[in-house]
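User: Can you write out an input/output pair for a complex, sequences first and structure second?

Assistant: Here is one pair. Inputs:
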Amino acid sequence: MRKVLLTPGPLTTAAETRAAMSRDWGSREDDFIALTGRIRSRLAALVEAQETHEAVLLQGAGSFAVEAAIGTLVPRSGKLLVLINGAYGRRAAEMAARMGRTVVARTVSEAQPVDVAGLDDALAFDASITDVFLVHLETTSGLINPLTAVARVVARHRRRLLVDAMSSFGAVPIDLRATPCAGLIASSNKGLEGVPGVAFVLAERSHLAEMDGNSPSVSLDLHAQWRGFESLGQWRFTPPTHVVAALDAALDRLTREGGVEVRGARYRRNCEMLTAGLTRLGFSLYLLPALQGPVIVTARDPGQPWFRFSEFHRALNESGVVIYPGKLTEAASFRIGCIGAIRQTDIERCLEGIADFVAARRGARLGTWAEAGQAGSS
Ligand SMILES: *Cc1c(COP(=O)(O)O)cnc(C)c1O
């Protein structure tokens, strides 16, 4: 049975993307150098950043690129304000603190967007803040934060903005010509529908050029990584060659699908099917509709004896649908992804699996409750 991953990374990939991994590449050969260069320019073009930014690829998970971006782009003497409304914002603050950067945080509820007016005040009040960190789409809940408004405020105060666009890149249109941003961070295995193993940062060229020696890490130094690409066209350390080839194939597919707008519309339809279906089955959604991004849906745990998440997860898995094995929000909840090389029929299959589970469990237990209720009232 085909298993569909409704997890937002790794996610379901297309057969042709996986097939691109079937040959070996010499990492220092001309064809791989050309492949690397092509991917770098395609990634920049996706967010209209060719004139202003450098796409710096990095081996590893998305978090490696977040850590690399903070370490390379926030000056050692700088002060980073992290806007937090979920686990990824909290993690970025932890990374910055661990690397010895001065960090302040503004935290709001996980069901609320970051506070733009509060940011404006904070930047006016504290002149020592040099950089601001925003998670564009908080995959903790699925909430989409107001990137454009935040970027405008940060630019007006002449500070730098770093954006974790891990789950929005490729899923939500972003135009860096209209969104001042020193570093935009993402990875291969979310909206780009590649396989996991490579991440990247679109770093503003003028700023990156000044950050020689700023990173506290050798392997996560984006300035040095960029110099490597620029001088020999090569990666400094063993590149994930097959993953890079798969990313190139995945970018071909994105182009054929019609680009980010069209892909984003497909994700949005998946998301709307999921939210409507879950609501119909009696679940309550964690986010208000206006805050819901097209990447992942969070539903509240019904908090009733018939619903055990571990059994729910297993039942869906047996019907061929894999969802995340646990919650990330502070509230009791579960999450279902809407991104990847999936079709509406996959979402339908997921909703059928959920409907079957609800009918089997709630139906059976309702009888038990009724009996218990009678026993209690007699
Ligand atoms: C997935 C994700 C990350 C981390 O990516 P990993 O590849 O798991 O390290 C960071 N930020 C956001 C918003 C994400 O969705």
